Amino acid sequence: MSGMTPRENFWRAVNHQEPERVPIFWGGTNSSIVPAHYNALCAALGVRPAVRPVGDFGTVNLQPELKARFHSDVELLILGSPPRRRLEGGVVQDGMWGFRMKEVGGYRTFPDTLAPLRRARNVEDVENHPIWPDPDGAVYCADQRAIAQKLHGTGKIVLGEASYAGAPFFIYPWLRGVDQWMMDPYANPGLYHHLATKITNLSEAILERWLSDVGEYLDVLCFYDDIAMQTGPMVSLDHYRRWILPYERRLVDKARTLTKAKFSIHCCGSCYDLLPGFIEVGYDILNPVQTRAKDMEASRLKKDYGERLCFYGGLDIQRLLPFGTPDEVRQGVKDLIRTLGPGGGFLFATSHNIEPDTPPENIVAMFDAAYELGRYPVGLS
């Protein structure tokens, strides 16, 4: 088992076999660096910065030199999207679903007060929303097959992100507001089912077109639904199974007919209590594995779910990476690999996007340690 490609390493790891080394994921919506800090990192390392870092959460147009410097095994393929509109007061209107974001301190936020369907009371109000995606729109798939073929040819892991066609319960609260999203199942179940079904139907149609073009070239397909906080889930497992799981499963079931990729679910925070539901949907990989959140200790996750889920993430960005020393970061990487790496099932990445207060020397120490210490057998040095 020598000289394995990144893709070969990945498929061993994700199938719970020990690869040659732990795959390193840097480059994706939620395993990157916040756009506001990206050019500063480039400058600190003497790398030509991007003209404009792109991404709502993490920078998706990473410079190849920086990815190589950090030993990244990943190439990102992201669904095309319609243009957006800039409104007054730093508000940006999405061109796909019409939700609104506000730029605050280098981040994009999604205030409930800006949710365009916040005052909807019935199905007619939902249908009167002026912006819905056209599943036949050329923008979603333009040039995607050729790009996917090229990325696949590198031998790296092709990380497919269906963006906002793979995140029904990002879209619902961004259209209605988080409070309405949580109350609608009980106060207005008819509206809830109509809106959730509409989002899922449109997402499924776009996903089907996109995967028909690129599915054969993907290694990972990412879905997103943030439904947890630092201290626990936002909803109970019973609520998840009744009101969320059926819609997520529709997208996963459709995707499974069009690609052999492994399916990743992105859920920040303390999602431990929801993991049985994630497995029922058919997700293979958990991201971003925020090990500082309640009940999300790496040892607990590995013990309880290490045979059923692959863990993608885990290196603490809340305290260790921004406030530790390079030596402490290196030790944290070593501990994480020793815990999650044995037997495979681990993809090294940060526990979310690298934040602006993170010293560049700590970022360098983290990736260099992952590359050096991630060679199997792990945990012996």
Question: Care to describe what's here?
Answer:
With 381 residues, this protein is α/β, with parallel strands linked by helices. The chain has one domain (6-373): TIM Barrel (Alpha-Beta Barrel), CATH 3.20.20.210. It has 14 helices and eleven strands. The strands form two sheets. Strands 1-6-7-8-9-10-11 form a seven-stranded parallel β-sheet. It has a four-stranded antiparallel β-sheet with strand order 2-3-4-5, with no helix packed on it. A hairpin with a 6-residue loop joins strand 3 and strand 4. Helix 6 crosses helix 8 (189-214) and helix 7 (178-187) packs across helix 8. It is globular, with a radius of gyration of 20 Å.
Helix content: 25-40%
How many helices? The count is 14
Kindly provide the radius of gyration, computed on alpha-carbon positions and rounded to a whole number of angstroms. 20 Å
Domain module count: 1
Q: Characterize the biggest β-sheet.
A: 7 strands, parallel
CATH topology: TIM Barrel
* Strands, count: 11
Distance between the termini: 20 Å
Per CATH, the architecture is: Alpha-Beta Barrel
Q: What is the strand arrangement across the widest sheet?
A: 1-6-7-8-9-10-11
Percent range for β-strand residues: 5-15%
**Any idea what the shape is?**
globular
Task: Determine the mean pLDDT.
Answer: 96
Which residues form runs of ≥5 with pLDDT under 50? none
Order of helices and strands: HHHEEEEEHHEHHHEHEHEHEHHEH
| The CATH C-level class name | Alpha Beta
Helix- and strand-based class?
A: alpha/beta
